[in-house]
Each structure stands twice: as structure tokens, then as C-alpha cells.
Amino acid sequence: MNARFSEYVTSGAFNMTLTRSQISTLAMLASGANEWAGASLERKGLAAPIASSLAEDRVEWRITGAGTIVMSLLFEAGLTNSGKDATAIEVDRLNGALGEANTTIRDVRRKTWSMFAKLQEAEIDNANLRRRIASLELEHKHPGVKLKAEFADCAPLVTARDPFPDVAAADLLDGDPDFSPTEPERTDHE
Q: In percent, how much of the chain has pLDDT > 70?
């Protein structure tokens, strides 16, 4: 933990003010050590003094972890010309990859739900056909005898709604990367 930065930001509402000179100095520190950094950056916890390799009575200033993060924010705000921080680049790349992954997951979930609804509908149709065949066989073997209505045909059931009723199951299983079904428009709540 950076004690100076912690003290600076918790002494009241977090509000950091940097002058153009401090921003410029922080950018120089981000690229390496500097002998001329002001103590104001140290008071804010953005720079730390270390012993100089040139002389005993001199100090060099190095950027702290908090200073690196502030530098990234300054670059994102367009207040410095220094190169973009590697962490910021990686975060942007990961956010893009996460967005693509979430889109793929959403499409796979919708395709899976559609396949489930198609399977459920096929099972119900199969059960209805079996009942109908049993009813016809009974009528053929024993003329004049009929099954009760509730056994002859299946009563309506609550089933899963297929989000892609016009798309064949083979197209859903095809795995075509260009196939991106769209959600059908809802007409019940207009």
C-alpha cells in the first residue's frame, strides 16, 4: 500500500489536481528516473525518492504504482502524449474479447433454447401420433369401439416457445459462423 497516496485521497473527498508542469513531470517519471521531480508529486503519493546512483547527496524520483495508474488516466483523457500504458491496452483488448464471448454465449443459448423447443414439439407430436395410431388400431380390431376423447388425442400442453420457429434444426446445428439469428419481434406487448 502507498501510505502517502492513501493519506492524500482519504483526507477528504477524493479530488486530485495536477498542474501542466506536474503532468509533464509525471510523464517523464513514467519513462524513467528524474532528478528534478517536485516534492508535490511525492506529497500526493505519485512519486517516490530513491538514492541516486550519481552522488550520495542526490536523490532520484521514481513513479509509484499510484502514479502509473494516474498516468494511464491522463493518457485516456488526452492530457499527455506519452505512450499508452500496457495495462490499459490489455484491459481494452480483454473488454473487446469479453463482448465477443458474451455475444457468442447469447447466440448459443438462444440456439439451444430453440433446439429444446423443437425437441419438445417433436416429442409431443410423436406422443400424439402414437395415441392416434393406437386409436385407429383399436377401431380396426374392434369396430364400433372408440377410446375416450381424453385418451384419443393429447390435451394442449404448455411448451417452450421456439425463438426461431422458421429456422430448421439442421441450420442451428450447422455451426455457420455467419448465422446470427435475430430475436423475433414481440407482438403481445405493443
A: 71
Q: Is the pTM of this model over 0.70?
A: no
Scan for cell 509533464, then name that residue: 24
- Looking at the fold, whether 80 and 99 belong to one and the same domain comes out as no
C-alpha 71/C-alpha 95 separation (Å) is 20
* Residues of the chain falling short of pLDDT 50: 177, 184-190
Angle at 52 between CA 48 and CA 58, to 5 degrees: 90
Under 8 Å between Cβ of 161 and 184: no
Number of domains in the chain: 2
Residue-range definition of the domain harbouring residue 131? 90-173
Answer yes or no: is 180 within a domain: no
Beta-carbon contacts of 24 under 8 Å, excluding residues fewer than 6 positions away, are 80
The C-alpha cell of 84 is what?
Answer: 499508452
Which grid cell sits at 83? 505512450
pLDDT at residue 145, rounded to an integer: 67
Res 103: pLDDT: 87
Q: Classify burial at 114, counting beta carbons within 10 Å of its beta carbon; exposed 0-12, middle 13-18, buried 19 or more.
A: buried
Residue 101 lies inside a defined structural domain of this protein: yes
Counted residue by residue, the chain has a size of 190
